[in-house]
Design brief:
This protein has 3 helices and no strands. By secondary structure, the chain is mainly alpha-helical.
């Protein structure tokens, strides 16, 4: 079940990557719902999205410890 949530989160983040504010809100929700090891994987995924869409880099602040 948890893995399905991780895949769903990646799909949602990919679909809302056009809007920085919405993307940041979804990142915050994901950090509340995912397991610690999934959050580490999510960081890698988000960093790859940021490389494709640099305006999303302001959302990286939520991923810092």
């Amino acid at each position: 079940m948890a893995r399905a949530m991780f895949e769903y989160t990646k799909t949602v983040l990919d679909k809302v990557s056009f809007d920085t504010l919405l993307f940041c809100k979804e990142v915050q929700k994901a950090l509340q719902r995912l397991l610690p090891y999934e959050i580490e994987e999510l960081k890698i995924f988000i960093e790859s999205l940021v490389q494709q869409n640099p305006k999303l880099n302001q959302c990286l602040v939520y991923l810092k410890p």
